[in-house]
Amino acid sequence: MGAKISSAEKSLIDQMGFSGREIARRLHLIDFTDSDLFRIKSAKEAVTKRLPELIEDFYSYQLSDPEIAEIIGDVDTLRRLKKYMTEYVRSIFDGEYGTDYVNTRLRIGKVHKRLDVRPKLYMKTHAYLQQILDTEIDNAGFGEDAKFVKNALHKILLFDAELIFDAYVQAYLTEMQGATREVEKYASQVGIKLDNMFARLHDKTQKDSVTGLHNRRALYDYLKRECQVAERHKLSFVVIYMDLNNFKSVNDLHGHQAGDEVLAQVGKTLLSVTRAVDIPARYGGDEFCIIMPRTSLAEIAVPISRLTHHFDRRSKYPVTFSMGIIQVGPTFFEEPEELIAKADQMMYEAKQRAHQDGHHHWQFEGKENSPENK
Fold first, then answer.
1. Is CB count within 10 Å lower at the N or C end of the chain?
2. Measured between alpha carbons, how far is 277 from 28 in angstroms, rounded to an integer?
3. CB-side exposure of 185: number of CA atoms within 13 Å?
4. What's domain 205-369's superfamily in CATH?
5. pLDDT band at 32 (very low <50, low <70, confident <90, very high)
6. What residue ranges of the chain are covered by domains with CATH 1.10.490.10?
7. Separation of alpha carbons 5 and 74, rounded Å
């Protein structure tokens, strides 16, 4: 068994459990689109050519606040901060918001907490940065498109602020965990085993242990949030409700371990073939669900085919999928429970056909299909 890796040997993004899926999901929730990304990048030259002047303006404003000036402390620190801020603004307009970008923002949040920079001070300076960048965009000759460029910028600044406060919260939790370790040390002396209860409790409330997917509770949380996002931005999304055909026979003939292998393979398949922004979940038993943001029924054939082919190539047992598929939005929305019930009913109709031939089948909006009958 390998040695346990300490938190000091991990990047902050790994310590906090961020993934490419989480980053994509957050950008989706603030409706950051490919058009926004194009606008951000198109503004880079116009904004950064006056970057030294903007940075001087920014720190003149900072130093006018006695509390902030006291935190900065000395000219060497100020010089380092100016260098960092220059790099940060450039990175905004580079348009690369992957793990390196996120890790940098999280690290800055951790440093702010360590220096005891209160959130209200951070937001004050964050708002001023937005103000001076907005002014620069207004003066850069974008015309009517300036408002769209600024809107894209505001989304990324919001994304960054969320990361900063995530790091604040993580730092507070680390302090709490230090106190918890003291409690655990005492508890072990009197024969009580706490065993990192907080992390375990969180996993149990959000993740399914067999498949590694989100569980039913997390699914409903995500579904409710997706309805809010789609309704706000007039988007559509798709919900796929899946049931495994022939799963009971596998359990009966080969045992529950084989059944768990099938469930785990479904989990691996869903994580492999879905997009980073999609939400695959185990609803319970042999039933699964996928939320696919920014998708319509007209676009569903390719991902469904990819899903079934990927699973068929890797499954050791004759298990197939019955799927009920619904589109939600962009104008009409229902409660999450009603959406699941509707998708479940369509899955049941697909299941009737699967009983006849054992193939993959799916049903949506009065239509039926299978890989063998397209």
1. N
2. 7
3. 6
4. Reverse transcriptase/Diguanylate cyclase domain (3.30.70.270)
5. very high
6. 11-171
7. 37
Q: Quick one: CA torsion of 66, 71, 74, 80, rounded to 10 degrees? A: -120
Tell me: the pLDDT tens digits for 107-138?
A: 887 777 667 777 788 888 889 999 999 999 99
The helix (run of H) or strand (run of E) holding residue 121 is helix 119-138
- Residue 190 has a CB neighbour count (10 Å cut-off) of 6
The C-alpha atoms of residue 198 and residue 3 are separated, in whole angstroms, by: 23
111 in Cβ contact with 72 (< 8 Å): no
**Beta strand spans in the chain (E):** 237-245, 279-284, 287-293, 320-328, 361-364, 367-369
Return phi, psi of residue 57, to 5°.
-60, -45
Question: Can you read off the two tokens belonging to residue 49?
Answer: 């050519």
Map residue 323 onto helix, strand or coil: strand
Strands 287-293 and 279-284: antiparallel
Backbone angles phi, psi at 239, to 5 degrees: -115, 125
CA distance 364 to 260: 29
Q: Which two tokens stand for residue 77?
A: 């620190």
Q: What does each C-alpha distance from 195 to 14, 76, 107, 200 come to in angstroms?
A: 21, 45, 28, 8
DSSP 281: E
Specify the fold of 11-171: Globin-like (1.10.490)
Max CA distance (Å), the chain: 78
The pLDDT score that the predictor gives to residue 226 is 94
The DSSP-derived string for 6-65 is: PGGGS-HHHHTT--HHHHHHHHHHTT--HHHHHHHHHTHHHHHTTHHHHHHHHHHHHHTS
Torsion 61-65-71-72 (CA) sign: positive
Q: Residues 290, 295, 297, 298: is their CA dihedral positive or negative?
A: negative
| Start and end residues for every CATH 3.30.70.270 domain found in the chain | 205-369
Residue 69 corresponds to which tokens in the numbers above?
């000036």
Mean pLDDT of 210-216: 92
Residue with tokens 């009517």: 144
pTM check: above 0.85: no
